[in-house]
Every structure is written in C-alpha cells, then in structure tokens.
Amino acid sequence: MHTIRVIPCLDVDNGRVVKGVNFVDLVDAGDPVEIAAAYDLAGADEVVFLDITASSDGRKTAVELAAAVATKLFIPFTVGGGIRSVEDFRDILREGADKVAVNSAAIKRPELISEAAGKFGSQCVVVAIDAKRTTENYTGKDVTDIPDNDTPRAADTGGRWTIYLNGGRVDTGIDAVEWAKRAESLGAGEILLTSMDKDGTKSGFDIELTAAVADSVSIPVIASGGAGREEHFAEAVLKGHADAVLAASLFHFKELEISDVKSYMRSKGIVCR
User: SS in 3 state form for 132-182?
Assistant: First the structure.
C-alpha cells in the first residue's frame, strides 16, 4: 500500500475559515493563516484552502492569502476558488502555493486543465469535484452556461452522482465518475472529491462514491465530506480506495487530532506519512 496523506481543509469566506453542513449554515472557525500554522505543527501532510464563494460571487481567490500562508507554512498547500485562467494558476503558484484547485471553470471550459498542466505540470493541477447522489434520470436540463456540450452526462443516473458548480449551488447534470475520468485525460494530477450529501454530517465518507471515482482513474483521489470518527478515515482508504483523506470541522474544533487519526490508521495496516 502506498503512503496515505491526512489533509485538513480550510474553507475560506471573506478572509475567515468557516464550516457548515451540506455546504450551508456556515459558522466562523478562525483565521486561516493561524490555523494553517497550527496544522503544520500538528503533523498535517498538506493543507487545502478553498474560497467557497469566489466562483459564485464572481471574484478571484485572494492572492494575498496564498502569500501570507506561504510565510507560515512549511508543508505543501493547495489554494482554490475563483480560478478561471492559466494566469490565475500562475499568480497563486508564484506566491508560494504548491498546487491549485479548480472546479467551476474547468467544468465550463475543460481545456483549462490541459492548459495549466502543460504550463506548470500535472502535479500542480487539482480538479475539485463536488458531487451529490441523484436518483433522477437526466432529461436535458438547461445547462447552457456550460459551453462544452460534449462533456459526458449521466443518461440514467439511478443511484449515481452528478457534479455541481459554484460551491454546490448549480447542478450540472454531469456524471461525477465520467467527469473524473475526463479530468485525468486532460492532465489533472489529482482529484479532490467531496460528497455534498456527507459534508459536515460526521456520518462517514461516501464510500461508494469514493470507490467509484478512485477505481475509475489512476491519479490520486482525496476523499472529502463526512468524516466523524477515526474509523471513517480508515474506511475511506481500505474500502473507498482513497489516496488521501481530508477533514475540516473535526480538526478545526479539536474533536480529533491528526496524530490520533494517523495512529488509528497505522493500527489498521495503513501506511501514513
């Protein structure tokens, strides 16, 4: 088994770390730079920063945040939210980020993935996928704001998952597994997969979703959404085949320590950093 990473995620809104349930009911969790520095000392392998309203508000991720974090953090970190162009990738990477996460802009213009990978390398390109289970048939809903009409969509989703734009606000009707496969083919180096159904519930990761995506691609998949206990992290790896596990509120509010999660996973035979 390859080495598994434990990653805290900082959802940022107006310069503050926030956390909610199912992408809503947000509460303040603190200053992102201070929290990131604490995670560095606590044994995190990486940190992810996501400006959760940047795309829906039509603004860029604060480059200043990346610069401030870079002065305090000595582990790899990823920044996402409001990324729309190769220039946005360049600006974030130039300030010290190791990777850039892109979601909405990649769905609307998939070529952005290949452009960024060609310019900076696939290892810098993380495609974030916000997925929600659906039992409805895809009937050709209006997704005219997505110009790339040949993106695969679920013809009959019957228990599968579709992906969402703008921080979970717009259902695209695009099948999550097919989109992950396409992202890989375009040059993505990693998938950050969040279950919207599980987000903030502490009921465990969506193992079925995680396994479906992880088994369909050869690039690393980060499981996100639903962690509540140490066992959930191990399940995401052993049953969901995730390459990394991510959590937010559990770590922010000290319900679990990163060191305890790693110790538990090691007890189950999982190799951690």
Answer: EEECCECCCCCCCCCCCCCCCECCECCCEEEEEECCCCEEEEEEHHHHHHH
Residue 130 annotated to the active site? yes
Q: 């974090």: which residue's tokens? A: 69
88 is catalytic: no
Residues 179-194 have pLDDT tens digits of 999 999 999 999 999 9
Say what the pLDDT of residue 118 is.
98
Q: For residues 224 and 38, what is the distance between their CA atoms, to the nearest angstrom?
A: 21
Among residues 13, 88, 98, 130, the one annotated as catalytic is 130
Grouping H, G, I as helix, E, B as strand and the rest as coil, residue 247 is strand
Give me 165's structure tokens.
Answer: 């734009």
Arithmetic mean of pLDDT, 4-17: 86
What percentage of residues in the chain have a pLDDT greater than 90? 64
Q: How far is CA 164 from CA 84, 118, 129, 172, 190, in A?
A: 16, 26, 8, 6, 18
